[in-house]
Design brief:
The chain is 26% helix and 30% strand. It is built from 5 helices and 9 strands; from the N terminus they run ββαβαβαββαβαββ.
């Protein structure tokens, strides 16, 4: 079976790829590799999520990118929000290494990038938890990211998720509403839903 982006495989051949992408008005350079999610370019769902996030109502405080991959979401937000620290986590060690390299390449210092299976190694509370959840890892993982964020949000902190309608957006919306008592569809684009809940 082919290696999945949410798994680790030491014997997977490297296929390094460099590309540039403008996110939140910053031109960023990324290195990706075989065995990581969306290695050719920043995937459409992540782009819609990155563009949609509005910091006007998000309280002061740090950010957490769960399942960061090689880093486009967390790094683009950290590049803009210089007064916030972004913790970025993944289970894929190759993705972690790439995210660290990409932080260095783009001179982004307000990040802390480390391995964590969902929230296993998370000890802080955050103003913002953001994720493009790994759908292929299964519903339990996606649900764990959504419901588990509640224990890691500061007062009035927000959870932002991107998920395709055909890959479970309606059930994710229902889970967010039952977990947080509120959910908003911030935007819908080409079947991708941006969902937002606030910890009141």
């Amino acid at each position: 079976m082919a290696n999945q982006y949410f798994e680790n495989s030491d014997d997977l051949e490297h296929e390094l790829k460099d590309f540039n992408f403008t996110l939140r008005n910053n031109n960023l350079t990324f290195t990706s590799d075989a065995g990581v999610f969306s290695r050719q370019t920043v995937d459409f769902g992540s782009r819609v999520l990155i563009d949609a996030i509005n910091f006007d109502e998000i309280p002061d405080g740090n950010m957490l990118d769960v399942g960061c991959g090689y880093g486009p979401i967390g790094l683009s937000l950290a590049k803009e929000q210089v007064n916030r620290k972004a913790d970025m986590t993944d289970v894929n060690l190759r993705a972690i290494d790439l995210a660290k390299k990409n932080a260095e390449t783009n001179h982004i210092k307000n990040v802390n990038i480390f391995e964590s299976n969902i929230y296993d190694n998370i000890t802080e509370k955050y103003a913002l938890v953001v994720s493009n959840p790994p759908i292929r890892a299964g519903k339990n993982v996606v649900s764990g990211i959504i419901s588990g964020a509640k224990d890691h949000l500061a007062d009035n902190g927000e959870l932002w998720i991107v998920i395709q309608k055909k890959q479970g957006a309606p059930s994710a919306k229902k889970l967010m509403d039952s977990t947080y008592g509120n959910v908003e569809i911030v935007t819908r684009e080409k079947g991708y839903y941006i969902l937002r809940s606030k910890l009141g």
